[in-house]
Backbone:
């Protein structure tokens, strides 16, 4: 392998085979302090691709931050110990890690920036635009435009949980390659909403995948662990590290899904976990009145696989309860039902394209 040259990050020169902690300067805060986004760079000894991994574009979605922490420092959070996953001396290429993209949003436990805007609808941003648009511009100019691939880490909002799933434009061969390599059982095919970092980065030739896993406002060990494994799989696929890729035993490539919504307001009791296989006509949840009496049942309208689920009990009419991918084929239903909670690693992946003409696409409803 060819030895790497120095890496230049905003004028800071980084030697091959080293890790540095730095920041991307984005102006100043209301008290005049320097406003900065923490950035960690692992610059490999050998030449290879540049990959950015970004967490907390939505400030309350913390699992991505945890994933980046564990990726670099291992489960003990101690630098330089044997459980660290990546040693720059044995890395081919460069990792640009942004554990918290929207710092002010995170510090206020909020999805959005202090101006109330969703950063992930404002890429590529504008130098002279509003507050959030300038933040988007800084990230896009100094991080996105300087890498070959991007991984964007998200969770469901506080009221729901998402089964681990990669979202990517599967019509883009490079996106599809890293989406499949990541190794989640569910891969959602969509370009992403206009202004999302995923869509805009892919548009300028930086293939980008998005991980949705777990829920907001907390670190969830399973989501964090799965995210670390997925990233290592992608880095192995790109030839940046030496590692046997871990694969799921089945995978579904999905274009559409159904939202099942609360028919009335009340107190929700779900009867299934995320990742359940449900049958058409099956009662998946019920709603009680304030005295605890059951007043309505929520029925699955389809045979399918639950990729997202409400987790908080207070619901109003129309609130999303379950996000279900339709799985028509009986054999596939059986495979998924049997293996849903099986974390064993298999050599062969049973991969299925799920066709559904009736559901909605992520681009219509992504949040
Ligand atoms: Zn998000």
Residues:
């Amino acid at each position: 392998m060819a030895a790497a040259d120095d890496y230049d990050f905003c004028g800071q020169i980084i030697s091959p085979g080293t890790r540095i902690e730095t920041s991307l300067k984005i102006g100043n805060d209301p008290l005049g302090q320097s406003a900065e986004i923490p950035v960690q760079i692992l610059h490999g000894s050998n030449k290879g691709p540049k990959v950015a991994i970004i967490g907390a574009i939505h400030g309350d979605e913390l699992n991505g931050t945890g994933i980046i922490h564990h990726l670099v420092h291992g489960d003990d959070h101690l630098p330089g110990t044997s459980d660290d996953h990546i040693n720059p001396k044995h890395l081919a290429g460069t990792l640009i890690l942004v554990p918290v993209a929207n710092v002010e949003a995170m510090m206020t436990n909020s999805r959005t920036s202090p101006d109330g805007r969703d950063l992930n609808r404002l890429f590529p941003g504008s130098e002279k635009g509003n507050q959030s648009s300038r933040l988007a511009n800084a990230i896009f100019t100094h991080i996105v435009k300087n890498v070959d691939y991007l991984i964007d880490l998200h969770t469901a909002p506080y009221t729901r949980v998402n089964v681990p799933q990669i979202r990517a434009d599967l019509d883009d061969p490079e996106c599809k390659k890293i989406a499949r390599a990541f190794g989640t059982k569910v891969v959602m095919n969509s370009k992403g909403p206009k202004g999302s970092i995923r869509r805009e980065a892919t548009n300028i030739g930086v293939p980008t995948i998005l991980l949705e896993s777990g829920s907001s406002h907390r670190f969830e060990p399973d989501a964090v662990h799965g995210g670390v494994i997925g990233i290592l799989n992608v880095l192995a696929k790109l030839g940046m590290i030496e590692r046997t890729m871990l694969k799921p035993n089945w995978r579904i490539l999905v274009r559409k899904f159904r939202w099942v919504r609360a028919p009335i307001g009340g107190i929700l009791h779900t009867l299934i976990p995320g990742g359940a296989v449900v049958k058409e006509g099956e009662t998946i949840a019920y709603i009680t009145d304030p005295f605890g009496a059951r007043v309505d049942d929520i029925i699955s309208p389809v045979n399918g696989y639950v990729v997202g689920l409400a987790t908080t009990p207070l619901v109003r009419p129309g609130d999303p309860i379950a996000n279900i991918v339709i799985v028509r084929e009986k054999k596939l239903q059986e495979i998924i039902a049997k293996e849903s909670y099986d974390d064993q690693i298999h050599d062969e992946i049973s991969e299925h394209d799920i066709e559904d003409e009736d559901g909605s696409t992520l681009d219509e409803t992504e949040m």
